[in-house]
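TICKET #2291
ISSUE: user wants both folds in one file
ATTACHMENT 1:
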Amino acid sequence: MSTEEPMKIIADENIPLVEDAFAEFGSVVTVPGREITKELLDDASILLVRSITEVNKDLLDKTQVKFVATATIGTDHVDVNYLRDNNIGFAYAPASNADSVAQYVVAAIMQMAKKNSLKLSDLTLGIIGVGNVGSRVYSCASTLGIKCLLNDPPKKRLTQSDTYVSLDTVLDNADIISIHVPLITAGEDVTYRMVGYDFIERMKPGVILINTSRGKVVDEKCLRASRSRIGALVLDVWEGEPDISIETLRMTDICTPHIAGYSYDGKLRGTQMIYDSTCAFFFRSPKWCIPQSITTGIVAEFDCTKSSDPVYDAVCNAYPVMRDDAALRKITDANKDMQGKFFDDLRKNYPRRNEFAHYMVKCRADQGDESIKLRNLGFIVSKV
């Protein structure tokens, strides 16, 4: 087939602007990610997914698919070895939603600190996994005056840098632990059910535990059994998605439906990255880019001139994480056999969430320290 001939593209309907971006390649058919089947792919050349579609031999064998891309930073839902062995091109979107996840973590930490009357500068944050997301969490936390301990065994082996500390050091000293690892099921750096009885027993009592990585990194049975050792529990990802454990949910302080990385900016970056990679694979010059009218512009202004805590107010107004928490808790009102659909529908119909760069915060001239923190978090600051 000539690469200039129209192709059929099957795409997850939750990839924003995917029809506009990929129209030049041919016919774009959008469907829910869990409804992408082998039959649907029979005459398709390109498959575009997000994290809920398992891409493997069972899905692709004997189809015409030549290229697969996932508009996500993770790839554990894709059998990349199968793609390589069968000469199927592959691309993903590393770092596309890293700012979104970091801002989620910041909002969660500030909510838990406020709820428990904790001073941020007195806290130590252990970041497990210091890739694109973890490094941004580190930057934001440092901006807020939180001491950080970084744990990343692969990077430690590669760099031999004292920047990275042992897991024991993190578990012994961290008041907050935020997990940002890929899901790895074999080898030296297994993360599957990494957070189990031993991990939890070694943590400082009363720690704030946050997981925005992959649900299967946490053994929820162990988590429930050891819940009394944890001060606050923040879960965005779950072992059995979309059929999550209601028992686990009820033990959380913040629960959300796998949307930490769901900022509109992050999703758009993902679309752009997989579009550019598709063009490269098929030797085409990129013609599409995210419309500037979407990527720029202030969507709201916050007047913090009378606020006693302008950083908290700006963060929690820009991203009211407890709104997402309240939405997921309504899953308990659904019939048990409909709870999975409820979870997926929250993700499918997730309201547009803008990153901090779209918000202007008004501060007084004497709020200098706060202004610096807000700018470093990504806000636009106006002094009055």
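ATTACHMENT 2:
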Amino acid sequence: MMPTNNEIGAKIRDLREMRRVSVEELAERSQLTVEKIHAIESGGVTTSLTPLLSIARGLGVRLGTFLDDSTTSGPVVSRADTKEKSAVRFAGAGQSGLEFHALATNKSDRNMEPFIIDVHAPESDEFELSSHEGEEFIYVLSGTLEAVVGKEKYVINAGDSIYYDSIVPHHVHSAKGVETKILAVIYTPN
């Protein structure tokens, strides 16, 4: 089972303390504010994926470290009946959020982060672009996704996919006010 946002914050705090990294050092390494680190660690905010990727890089771990319960180096099977139990919701400016269902939570030596993501209808047309090292592949399972990558907008329908360098500022959200479901694979270099 994937941890809740409160458990993710506790894992970040435990890792930071175990590595003897102060909140100020982590804020500097991850280019986030001290206040943002405190809020994430306390579980007081639902954050977006980009700050978690920055924190993972700042601590020298992969993103999955925050999402895993136990680890194995062998194959990992994700069962359909566990997806609802394993959801973690991330907020995004101008949208009601993204609900992530991790597909490889207990694979310890993975280089990719595969997810099924429920992309909820946006609350407004306002959103912020974000960027991080790596690459992203998105396949739309149902609904319609709008992907803004750099200065370009792409409408991705069910059955379509997009692959982009995630260092380029980007944002994905449900298009036309409909709920959308995607398969996303995120790669971040170590």
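RESOLUTION: both attachments delivered.
EXTRA DETAIL ON ATTACHMENT 2: The chain has a mean pLDDT of 81.
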